[in-house]
Design a protein that fits this description.
The complex is a heterodimer of chains A (about 270) and B (about 425).
Chain A lengths: L1 H21 L1 H16 L7 H21 L9 H23 L6 H6 L6 H27 L11 H25 L2 H15 L12 H7 L3 H15 L5 H25 L3 H4 L1
Chain B lengths: L5 E11 L7 H14 L10 E12 L4 E5 L6 H8 L7 E6 L3 E4 L12 H11 L4 H15 L14 H13 L5 E5 L7 H16 L4 E4 L3 H7 L2 E6 L2 E6 L1 H10 L1 H9 L7 E10 L7 E3 L4 E14 L2 E8 L4 E6 L9 E12 L7 E10 L6 E14 L13 E4 L17 E5 L1
Parallel strand pairs in B: 3-7, 3-8, 5-6, 6-7, 11-17
Antiparallel strand pairs in B: 1-2, 1-4, 8-9, 10-12, 12-15, 13-14, 13-16, 16-17, 18-19
Classes of the chains: A mainly alpha (about 270), B alpha/beta (about 425).
């Protein structure tokens, strides 16, 4: 009984991945579409991807270096903040976009069949393109402040994949949630603001003491952003327990949310 | 590959009528109420209704199935189940292979993208690989007849061009199963003919076709089988002409006729019967045999010199004959009460196909219809002849061996040898 359940689950997962592979052309085309639309009739084009986190970083740089002092462990604050904002913006922009990705494609959802995961996945891919573009500024900043890299750079892909898995997991849940209940989009905006300050984006959360500190340490995004800083700026291996558990949680959540999404997608056309 | 690429096996589909909870504010009180009152779980939930009830059919390769029925009969639900957008509540439905669904062929178009960008997008939505689109790109553009506008955003396209481009992409899909929803209203007459031709070619190569339409002439022209749906149930499954007739005869059809096409003045058609040379009512005739159209009427008040009209169109809309008693200088005088008139064709010249008969009663000046049943009476024609075209023409062949065009023979008027005659 138990074995057959595992077997069925594996079959379903295989089917999901297979279907996704079959429709990879469509994932690509939808991503291209969204990228084209995003920067059509804009003057700065993809420059916005750089501009936004840079402005934020500068604002926080003014606050945390001119107004009050903050200990960032010897790393210049601007680099520290930009690294956090870069990673955070990827999550935030992907999720903002994925929350509305199904509801803004009503005709496609109700008229044509293809795996619906394509919409949230393409939202993540679009976010990824911005992430890649803005990363060049990160490299420039590191060069400017003379921060070198060490062997720990080989761990960067691991951190990156975890980050993407966590983002995709949230994207699937949000897209699905907003399809059934349109409040999700509004609630999420509030959550995003609170969440950002509960994460090590512009200050190290490890500085928060007591129960609140312990609670905030549960946030996988903190572990992920800290891990980015560890491998890039502090040249050390990320702390095993927080990052390891964040990694497990991200992949677990991704698997579960994809499965739930896949099972629910047949109700989408009726409920949108 | 299984023999049946399309199968519906006792399919039931339930929908919930009315507003659903799309906001959490509504859901929370509704859920608590449900928890408190502990309603028994009914078979049919509150406000739910069956859109389809026990629908079964299979489509053989090379078969063209039309699904017709009044609005709300469940036709679109069948399509959405076939295209896997919906899942049946009960029963099984399967379509195997690549699905060519000509439903909303321009659904994936984004107005801000150019024609070229949209071809790639829509192609991918329909399941084509990028390499495949690149390979067929020129063909698609040529078929749609859009040349210079490829770099223009489709929001600047005319709606006809939009649809043409969409259809053209769909037409190059090479599907295993073809599903069409009322798309024959796309484009101008020549483009429509091109589309029909393309679909017929696919059917002859063995691709099963499912066609949902209100366009009865197109149904008759394209399909080999008809299913009539009414309120979610199959009420007819079989020959197209008989199916269309069933559909026309049903109460919803006559209700529609009551509202349109008839003035309130006295005379109306009470019945129309097609009779073959044996004197039997039928809707299947043979070329060169007689066909009689018997029209029963009833005039509730005396009417001076009414005229009767008979029109025959072929399934594809080709007008074959249109005549009325005025043209034939038939004076019916003062008509009152019940009566009938017969339109007799001693030798039906029509070649095999599906045809639609329209019957009308006009006033004495032939200006206003007193009653008009447009395309209400379908019939089919069969024949042993191999001739093609619209009508059978009485003919002979004359062959003169050894003669050339420039040299005239004295006995030209008499045939040298009769090769074939009828």
């Amino acid at each position: 009984m138990k074995e057959s359940l595992v077997h069925r689950l594996r079959q379903e997962l295989q089917e999901m991945v297979h279907e996704q592979a079959e429709y990879r052309s469509l994932l690509f085309q939808i991503t291209i579409r969204d990228l084209l639309l995003r920067y059509k009739q804009t003057v700065m084009g993809v420059g916005w991807a750089v501009f936004m986190p840079l402005v934020n970083a500068v604002v926080f740089w003014v606050i945390f270096t001119k107004v009050t002092q903050l200990d960032t462990g010897g790393v210049p604050y601007l680099v520290f903040a930009f690294c956090g904002l870069l990673a955070w913006n990827f999550l935030a922009s992907s999720l903002r976009f994925s929350a509305i990705c199904l509801t803004s494609n009503t005709t496609l959802v109700t008229k044509v069949y293809f795996p619906r995961e394509i919409f949230p996945f393409s939202a993540v891919l679009v976010g990824l393109v911005d992430f890649a573009v803005a990363s060049t500024v990160m490299i420039a900043l590191m060069a400017f402040y003379g921060i070198g890299v060490s062997w720990t750079l080989v761990l960067l892909p691991v951190v990156f994949v975890t980050h993407v898995a966590f983002t995709a997991a949230c994207a699937l849940i949000l897209a699905m949630g907003n399809l059934f209940y349109r409040d999700v989009k509004y609630i999420f905006e509030i959550v995003l603001t609170v969440w950002m300050f509960a994460t090590s984006v512009v200050y190290p959360v490890s500085h928060v003491a007591g129960r609140l500190g312990a609670f905030l340490a549960l946030n996988p995004m903190t572990a992920i952003i800290d891990a980015y800083r560890d491998v890039l700026l502090y040249q050390q291996v990320p702390a095993a327990v927080p990052f390891g558990s964040a990694m497990l949680a991200s992949f677990g959540l991704f698997g579960v949310s994809w499965l739930v999404f896949h099972r629910a997608e047949f109700a989408f056309a009726e409920n949108i | 590959m299984t023999a049946h690429r399309v199968s519906f096996d006792h399919v039931w589909k339930q929908f919930v009528r009315g507003e659903r909870h799309t906001s959490l504010r509504d859901l929370i009180p509704a859920t608590t109420r449900k928890l408190w009152s502990r309603q028994p779980a009914d078979e049919l939930k509150q406000g739910a209704f069956w859109a389809l009830q026990d629908v079964s059919f299979r489509v053989e390769p090379g078969e063209a199935l039309a699904i017709i029925g009044p609005n709300g009969a469940g036709k679109s639900t069948v399509l959405k189940l076939l295209t896997r957008i919906l899942r049946p509540t009960r029963g099984q439905c399967h379509t195997h292979g690549r699905l060519g669904a000509l439903i909303e062929v321009a659904a994936g178009f984004h107005p801000d993208l150019t024609g070229r960008e949209n071809i790639f997008l829509q192609g991918a939505i329909m399941g084509m690989k990028r390499a495949e689109i690149i390979r067929k790109f020129d063909e698609i553009v040529a078929f749609a007849g859009t040349g210079n506008e490829l770099e223009t955003p489709v929001k600047r396209y005319s709606s006809g061009m939009n649809a043409r481009l969409g259809f053209s992409i769909a037409a190059h899909l090479d599907p295993d199963v073809l599903i069409i929803d009322e798309i024959l209203s796309v484009g101008d007459a020549s483009f429509q003919a091109k589309c029909l031709e393309r679909m017929r070619k696919l059917v002859t190569t063995g691709v099963p076709l499912v066609f949902v339409s209100h366009n009865l002439p197109a149904v008759l022209q394209l399909c080999t089988r008809v299913i009539v749906l009414d309120r979610g149930r199959v009420v007819f499954d079989g020959d197209p002409a008989a199916g269309v007739r069933e559909y026309q005869r049903a109460p919803w059809a006559s209700a529609a006729h009551d509202e349109t096409g008839r003035s309130t003045s006295g005379i109306r058609i009470t019945g129309v019967q097609l009779v073959n040379h044996h004197g039997c009512p039928t809707d299947c005739f043979r070329t060169n045999e007689s066909m009689t159209v018997r029209i029963d009427y009833y005039a509730s008040q005396p009417i001076e010199r009414p005229h009767f009209s008979v029109e025959i169109v072929r399934g594809d809309g080709t007008n074959c004959a249109a005549v009325n008693t005025a043209m034939d200088r038939c004076d019916l005088g003062l008509v009152s009460g019940a009566g009938s008139i017969e339109y007799v064709i001693p030798r039906l010249p029509l070649l095999p196909g599906c045809y639609l008969l329209s019957i009308g009663i006009l006033d004495s000046a032939c200006v206003e219809h007193q009653d008009f049943r447009e395309c209400a009476y379908p019939f089919s024609v069969t024949s042993d002849t191999l001739e093609r075209g619209l009508v059978y023409m009485e003919h002979r062949w004359h062959h003169r061996p050894g003669s050339t065009g420039g040299r005239r023979r004295e006995d030209e008027s008499s045939p040298i040898r009769l090769v074939a005659a009828s």
